[in-house]
Write a structure and sequence with these properties.
Elements (H helix, E strand, L loop, with lengths): L13 H6 L4 E5 L2 E4 L4 E4 L2 H4 L8 H13 L11 H13 L4 E7 L2 H18 L7 E5 L8 H6 L3 H4 L10 E4 L5 H4 L15 H9 L4 E6 L15 H12 L2 E5 L13 H5 L5 E4 L11 E6 H7 L19 H16 L2 H17 L7 E7 L2 E6 L8 H12 L2 E2 L1 E3 L2 E4 L7 H17 L2
Parallel strand pairs: 3-13, 5-6, 5-7, 7-8, 8-9
Antiparallel strand pairs: 1-2, 2-3, 4-10, 9-10, 11-12, 12-15, 14-15
Helix pairs in contact: 3-13, 4-13, 5-12, 14-16, 15-16
The protein binds pyridoxal-5'-phosphate.
Pyridoxal-5'-phosphate binds next to α5.
GO molecular function: adenosylmethionine-8-amino-7-oxononanoate transaminase activity; beta-alanine:pyruvate transaminase activity; pyridoxal phosphate binding
GO biological process, one term: biotin biosynthetic process
Family: Belongs to the class-III pyridoxal-phosphate-dependent aminotransferase family.
Length: 435
Amino acid sequence: MEHEQALWLPFTANRAFWKQPRVISGARGHYYTTADGRELLDGFSGLWSCGLGHAHPGIVAAVQQQVATLDFSMTFQATNDKAIALAREVASMAPPGLHKVFFTNSGSESVDTALKIALAYHRARGDGHRTRLIGRERGYHGVNLGGTSVGGIAVNRKAFGAVLTPGVDHIRHTLSLPDMAFSRGQPSWGAHLADDLERLAALHDPSTIAAVIVEPVAGSTGILVPPVGYLERLRAICDQHGFLLIFDEVINAFGRLGAPFAATRFGVTPDLITTAKGLTNGVVPMGAVIVRQDIYDALMQGPEHAVEFFHGYTYSGHPLAAAAGLAALRAYREEDSFARVRALEPVFEDGLHSLRDEPNVVDIRNFGLMGGVELAPRDGVLGVRGFEVFLKCFEAGVVIRNGGDILQFAPFFDSTEDELARIFETVRAALRATA
Ligand code: PLP
């Protein structure tokens, strides 16, 4: 029996989990089926990833056909037709000037790829002393070493101190409950927080800084919505000093904010965009880094037979993932998903904010179909109450997520008002039961 519980779960309290396992064995549309036969309404679109719903017929058919046609082929010094087509489609949706697409297998790989492109770009231009990378407190950029380094979450960093990339610093995050609690959408207070980048520029000397990476709307640390004018100010400071600006849109891109990209929705164009999740509707793992044309051009140096950028993954542009991606992008178009998100956004916002007077709620934040309800910790111990509410909802047939004491919501793009109401009423009951 020693192999009975061989599975080691990621970002999970493993010992508690195996005392009360939650095992999903099926999914269709907006519902999961558990291994013991229960139906659960998914209020988190997988893990921010499946905005179109589970087992989307167009994606299922595309993947089935692809696996029978071309399962895999070399990705170095050769490619496949689906990867070419998907790159073209992604580039055509991207903000002006971002024309090149480098495929990865995850958000973490997208982030580390983007950081490496930024460093290589400066070096190729003869500016190789620009090696410093700037992240933001409470930023989540995945779990590879580069992303962990620029990430601003202490618990994700503390075990790995010595090998985190040296020469990384962080600007302060934008959340301030006294100044913005319960604001709907973008807080009006806080654009000046972008000036913290000026502080780091002065401290380190701007000529040492290669790139700045932020999530436009931070997800994992609890829906931190950029204050009005904040992203514009970051862009201006980056321009002034020659820093590349990277938007980590692993959650934000492909509809979650009611637009192809956060960059589109906020009208601020970064130099690189990292994506994953919604690219394939979460069906086959895939990420992409979308890059400004002239950054790519700067790297196209040396003899033509030689590799220009020494980086890539065996599965960069995997045909199965690319087929899923093409089908997902087609579905977003055909179902007018991004407009639907915009139409649903006020309904979602009202429902979320209806929880304001429930026990222990200290803030509610939302943008697009991303929502967060922050709770006061139970007895000062972080995360206990949030986890209790998550469990109560799961038992009552609704899946949301807790990041510590912040409840997180990411409903499907075609959620019905009844489904949203059921999610919020289940959470309301759970908040009262755990008061
Ligand atoms: N960046 C952001 C903003 C994310 O939200 C995530 C995952 O949630 C990642 C990177 C890492 O993505 P993955 O888990 O696919 O490696």
